[in-house]
Specification:
five-stranded mixed β-sheet, elongated
């Protein structure tokens, strides 16, 4: 933003574009004439509310919503130009093996990658917030700042949509998420156990601690098998309810919970993450979820590296200069998103029915 700062009082900076828009509006002269607002001139009123808006914008930029797991735990990149409508990238499968060679050998084994081109489309997410002339009048008379919650709500709305896209994608707009059914990440089949009624289950609540460990170890073994031990995932993401379960589920005669045992003994695992987006009833983020007992929770094993996959955001959350609209000022907000770019699909694994 272009700002006019007082170095001694940085909180008194303002966006020059906001100031110009306010000064050109018909709102500031009206507020200047209001005897209870106590402005000496239209310019004073414009500066006052430009500073207010600058403070609000800064607050909403700084706001962090830790419940959005993708924005906190997935690699995020900004490599695509914000003006791009699409990008082409390659998903790779490493191939080839080295061999012992003799001096001056000319038949060196060829190491290569099998690449398949994919296209990611870039889409804009939009929201806005604003204040009426009465909001401004009340703020000035009461000596209080304008309500920052409106700006935070706009930021929340865009972050929420970005988080949904990161997990489930958006098929209508050709955006891919980590759980999209066509993203080439392999599915791992969990073991089944029978209850006392003869019904079969794959979820952890019907399994013993040993059976849970077998499932998780099975995921690592399967990834090792299909990649010839090239890929070694380091992060396990679980639904909240499953994370809580293994945090308290004791392994008999050891004094260890399943969670603690995994953290201390799984050879490649660096982090175990709780994610409400993977729950069996998380309809917006989990494609396998349902609103009833037939919904399936998901376990997601991945390598937390932008070299393997990333949530691509060509243009981070941005707030435009205000716009005058009747008796209001509106601040449009935008972000451009390309979804999840998966360079190495075999670096991740999805298990449905946890």
């Amino acid at each position: 933003m272009s700002k006019n700062y007082n170095p001694e009082k940085p909180s008194e900076g303002y966006d020059v574009a906001d100031f110009a828009a306010l000064k050109a509006s018909n709102l500031m002269p009206a507020l200047k004439e209001d005897r209870l607002c106590r402005f000496d001139s239209t310019e004073d009123a414009s500066i006052f509310f430009a500073r207010e808006l600058d403070y609000i914008k800064s607050k909403s930029y700084d706001k962090i919503y830790p419940e959005f797991t993708a924005l906190n735990k997935f690699p995020i990149t900004h490599e695509v130009p914000e003006g791009a409508e699409s990008m082409t990238y390659y998903s790779y499968e490493k191939t080839g093996m080295a061999a012992i060679i003799s001096n001056y050998s000319t038949d060196l084994p060829r190491a290569d990658v099998k690449g398949k081109p994919s296209t990611a489309f870039v889409k804009s997410l939009g929201a806005s917030y604003g204040y009426s002339v009465q909001d401004m009048r009340a703020s000035r008379m009461a000596g209080k700042s304008l309500d920052t919650r409106r700006a935070e709500a706009a930021r929340y709305a865009i972050d929420h949509t970005t988080n949904v896209i990161a997990f489930a994608g958006d098929k209508d707009n050709n955006l891919v998420g980590v759980l999209s059914t066509d993203n080439n990440i392999p599915l791992y089949t969990l073991s089944e156990v029978e209850d006392e009624n003869g019904e079969k289950h794959t979820d952890f609540k019907h399994k013993t601690a040993a059976q849970i460990l077998d499932d998780i170890n099975g995921m690592f073994s399967y990834q090792s098998k299909i990649t010839k031990s090239v890929e070694k995932a380091d992060t396990l993401m679980l639904p909240d309810s499953v994370y809580i379960d293994i945090s308290t589920r004791q392994i008999p005669n050891t004094g260890y919970t399943v969670l603690r045992f995994l953290k201390e003994n799984a050879p490649y695992l660096k982090d175990i993450v709780s994610a409400p987006e993977l729950e069996s009833d998380a309809l917006d983020t989990n494609p396998y979820a349902k609103g009833d007992k037939d919904g399936k929770g998901v376990m997601f094993l991945f390598t937390n590296s932008a070299e393997k996959f990333s949530l691509e955001i060509p243009m981070a959350y941005y707030q435009y200069p205000l716009q005058n609209r009747n008796l209001e000022v509106i601040v449009p907000c935008e972000e451009r998103v390309a979804g999840v770019i998966i360079y190495y699909p075999l670096s991740a694994l999805i298990a449905v029915g946890v």
